[in-house]
Amino acid sequence: MGDGGGLPTMDLMRSEPMQLSRIVIPMESAHRTVSYLGDLGLFQFKDLNSGKSPFQRTFAAQIKRCGEMARKLRFFRDQMTKAGLLASTRSSYGSEISLDELEVKLGELESELIEMNANTEKLQRAYNELLEYKLVLQKAGDFFHHAQTSATVQQREFEEHRLVEGSMDSPLLLEQEMTTDISKQVKLGYVSGLVPRDKSMAFERILFRTTRGNVFLKQNVVEEAVIDPVQGEKVEKNVFIIFYSGERAKNKVLKICDAFGANRYPFTDDIGKRYQLITEVSGKISELKTTIEVGTLHWSSVVQAIANQFEQWNNLVKKEKSIYHTLNTLSFDVTKKCLVAEGWHPVFAITQIQKALQRATVDSNSQVGAIFEILHSKESPPTYFRTNKVTSAFQEIVDAYGVAKYQEANPGLYTIVTFPFLFAVMFGDWGHGICLLLATLFLILREKKYSSQKLGDIMEMAFGGRYVILMMSIFSIYTGLIYNEFFSVPFELFGRSAYDCRDPSCRDATTIGMIKVRDTYPFGVDPMWHGTRSELPFLNSLKMKMSILLGVAQMNLGIILSYFNAKFFKNDLNIRYQFIPQMIFLNSLFGYLSLLIIVKWCTGSQADLYHVMIYMFLSPTDDLGENQLFWGQKYLQILLLLLALVAVPWMLIPKPLLLKKQHEERHQGRAYAPLYTLDENIEESDFSDKPHGEHEEFEFSEVLVHQLIHTIEFVLGSVSNTASYLRLWALSLAHSELSSVFYEKVLLLAWGFNNLVILAIGIIVFVFATVGVLLVMETLSAFLHALRLHWVEFQNKFYEGDGYKFSPFSFATISEEDDN
Fold first, then answer.
1. What is the pLDDT of residue 234?
2. What does 789-819 look like in DSSP terms, one character per residue?
């Protein structure tokens, strides 16, 4: 939620102070009041009718009415999609329309469109049928024409043959043929039409088997696909004509035609009538085409008019539906003349809410104004952080783990810096960082365009986190400059290297083969380290120790935040018996390890820190010998080990005993202070998670077991969490080595062939490998590991995350897809 005009300064450390209020609204101004509060977007209504089903509520009829209007708008959207139109975002809002007027208008437009669609469908079907009929008349007519021509030729040949080869028997046979009664000749019937081409073979086989070969089928291929009148889709078809004998065969042929979806059309063997039919059908086709074009033009004009007003109508229906949904959460007072609303809102919004109520009273001409009163409740308020487009993505990262409890310390404030920094430690390469930066700047520069478009799932995720990626890329450039890596290639950006080789062949030697001839390289890793045999051991040592330092620092920050939480909620037990022993335990072990790392770096000592830490536990009284880094180290280690051992029972035992004592004194009337349970952060106000005025049971065994689990979790977690930060070293090393492999084994290898084709292939492979593996997969991998370090290693030191988000009634948050 972005900052609004005139709002106080954004504070991400703790959530906004919230207030529960009751509003008594007269019936005549209820609708306008809820509408103005929706415009304000700072009041979260409580459902005071939770015991009622949706159909039993007061405004169920109005919601049903809005739902019906939403259905009509969905129908209009389908028609717009069919016409290839988009809803105009420049609707004319000058002419406001009421809900009643809109309902009538939508009904009229729906009826008109349905009637137009039905008429167009009938006309289109008739048009397609006439087109098929014309094809049948032409193709089947061609068949009859060829048959008659062939019969005439055969008759002429027979006559010639009879005259040339006449005999004594011929006149008798001819006389017998000529005297045959016409009524006794067999009459053949025929059926013509079109059948889908993919069914034509099966159609022919079924006809043959069903009639036992007593039909004659002739098919002719239609070159172009025709639109089927029934399906309305283009289908490749064959024109057929079937000759049969008898009524029984006719019935079988008709049934088979229907089964195969063949469209039958009447046909005449009279040439004159056939040409007359073709002329009539062509005239009807021309008339229908003109009629359909005129109807389509009218339909398009109606749909275009709808598209121009669609967004305005759609927003109005959504707005009204959400208002009635909200009104259904309100309850009637005893007089049935007022509606009572209860809900949460930020304290800073009280004045704005009161102004909205006054404006609603004036605009609705109500004689009685709404009554606004503050309520005191023990219910835990919702959590509300005012964020902008930059900080909202970081807050979403925290909220994905759990919404902050009311006014507890918010990790989102620190995540803005620590999250991209830890990502960059694993992704340190300023060349890759620049690529990420350019991609993110492209999204940011086009954010106005993309924010109003529907993007794919992956693109939507990248666009939503564009400012997170921006910070990640900037920090990656910074850590890449420290690592001195540009696509794994070092540069002398800040001056020349401090080392030179003793002789030309020392490139393959260790750093012992180099001499320091200049001052120390001013910023980052000296470029001379790259490419030497000792590069990997040196960078391994550097990055591993750096990971431990960063991890211990972030875990200490988490414990310090638990102190501020306890101090804010005035929970002295958590300060004395949780914060102090945790700080002592963590820093006695891993704080001391961090100190040893810094001392070793400063002094250049060759001490083995693994040996020091292991024998600090196994043999704390033994001399350190060559592993001693400073005077008194042995005694300091013994002291720190004792402090760590004392810190464990310090966390475990006193807190449950003091909680039990407080509980007993409370019930004996010696103390009237509220009893704070283990992880309860309670403000001095009346807000709490549990009602303290009641006599809740206190199970000492449960409290002790809970504290035992909490202590064991912290002690073991201190070790495992510190080790978990070594992923910073592992992923940084993997990224660097992969980048080096792609550069040396792909790009340089292709360059060495002195062939333009091989070089072009090598560059293409290098680009795709860099983008696909390093800029996509490695980015995702480093992102997920940084996410885990924040959720587990950092936030479990202080963050409860069992709150619930502030969800005010706001028209700005109505989803565009919410058409239910």
1. 85
2. IIIIIIGGGT------B-----GGG--TT--
The strand pairing partners of 26, in sequence order, are 338
Flag residues of the chain having pLDDT under 50.
Answer: 1-8, 91-94, 167-169, 172-180, 182, 670-673, 675-695, 816-817, 819-820
The two tokens of residue 581 are 């022993």
Cα–Cα distance for residue pair 447/451, rounded to 1 Å: 6
**The dihedral sign for the CA sequence 22, 27, 33, 35:** positive
Residue 710 one-letter amino acid: H
Q: Residue 19: which of 381, 307, 317, 448 has the closest Cα?
A: 381
Largest alpha-carbon pair distance within the chain?
A: 148
For residues 727 and 553, is the Cβ–Cβ distance under 8 A?
A: no
The residue length of the chain stands at 820
DSSP 153-208: HHHHHHHHHHHHT--SSHHHHHHHHHTS-GGGSPPPEEEEEEEEGGGHHHHHHHHH
Backbone dihedral angles phi then psi of residue 563, each to the nearest 5 degrees: -65, -45
pTM: 0.77
- Who contacts 676 (Cβ-Cβ below 8 Å, separation ≥6)? 571, 573, 659, 662, 682
Alpha carbon distances (Å) from 732 to 749, 772, 792: 24, 17, 20
Please identify which residue in the block is written with the tokens 């509408």: 35
Instruction: Give the burial class of 466: count Cβ atoms within 10 A of its Cβ; 0-12 exposed, 13-18 middle, 19 or more buried.
Output: buried
Q: How confident is the model at residue 357, as a pLDDT?
A: 92
Strand partners, 482: none
Local structure of residue 725 (DSSP, 8 states): T
The answer to whether the beta carbons of residues 399 and 14 sit under 8 Å apart is no
Dihedrals φ, ψ of 343, to 5°? Answer: 180, 170
Query: Which amino acid, one-letter code, is at 405?
Result: K
Q: Which of 811, 22, 56 is nearest to 338 (CA)?
A: 22
